[in-house]
Write a structure and sequence with these properties.
alpha/beta, 7 helices, binds fructose -6-phosphate
């Protein structure tokens, strides 16, 4: 695992977006695994700029998102479907048929999980972008998720619901479940690119940087990946000795 410490969110976003730009310049039909949340927003803003400057195109790019809330219609402003369109897809030339986001609207969630998992088996993701939860989660794989887990429906921990409350009017409105790629799916990407900023990520980053590999802190699985890059700002790195 390659750990890069940078000054702040802006520099983290720049470094990560240059890695993605370089991939898209080299491989115009690359397949990207994408994340939502606060961490990738700066990266997406940079990618939009590169697209506008005609440095890259997404015409032949395919994307697969990590996760989606259950119980929220795709049209809800806080669904990850809406998030991705608002923050990236509506500003680039990606084809809607090349965008894949777990669909968790419907009565048979198990069938929807299997459908997304089957898609992932054929996806051959070149680079998977990841954020990290304060408790070390990746995707919505909370602590003690088996590393062998594939796409599944997760009951969100109260900590994660509280962390995400800022996007909703009240805690009651935060969904209780989400559909997420499992850790096994995430590990199948050729390259993992994890970004983290801010003090509240410092403990999880300390565990990741220690070389530990433990289901108690899901992100530590990156230590077993042959091509994992972790870019963190000074605050997120503040507990690394
Ligand atoms: C989002 C996701 C989550 C977030 C994590 C960090 O698709 O899978 O694991 O990456 O919760 O969220 P932020 O970036 O908002 O701190």
């Amino acid at each position: 695992m390659k750990l890069i410490v940078v000054k702040d969110y802006e520099e983290m976003s720049l470094k990560a977006s240059l890695i993605i730009k370089e991939l898209l310049m080299r491989k115009k039909d690359a397949t990207l695994g994408l994340a939502t949340g606060s961490s990738p927003i700066g990266i997406y803003q940079n990618l939009i700029k590169y697209y506008q400057n005609k440095e890259i195109s997404f015409k032949d790019v395919k994307t697969y998102n990590l996760d989606e809330y259950c119980e929220l219609p795709r049209s809800h402003p806080e669904s990850y479907y809406s998030f991705m369109h608002r923050n990236l897809f509506s500003s680039i030339d990606i084809l809607e048929e090349n965008v894949h986001i777990p669909c968790s609207e419907g009565s048979d969630l198990q069938a929807l999980c299997k459908e997304y998992n089957d898609l992932l088996h054929q996806a051959d993701i070149d680079l998977q972008l990841l954020g990290i939860g304060a408790n070390g989660h990746i995707g919505f794989n909370e602590p003690n998720t088996p590393f062998t887990q594939e796409t599944w429906v997760v009951k969100l921990t109260e900590k994660t619901r509280l962390d995400n409350q800022r996007f909703f009017n009240s805690l009651d409105e935060v969904p209780t479940h989400a559909m997420t790629m499992g850790i096994k799916n995430i590990m199948q990407a050729k390259c993992l690119l994890l970004v983290a900023s801010g003090k509240n990520k410092a403990l999880a980053i300390k565990r990741l940087a220690s070389g530990e590999v433990s289901e108690e802190c899901p992100a530590t699985i990156l230590n077993n990946h042959p091509n994992a890059i972790v870019i963190v700002d000074e605050e997120a790195a503040s507990l690394i000795k």
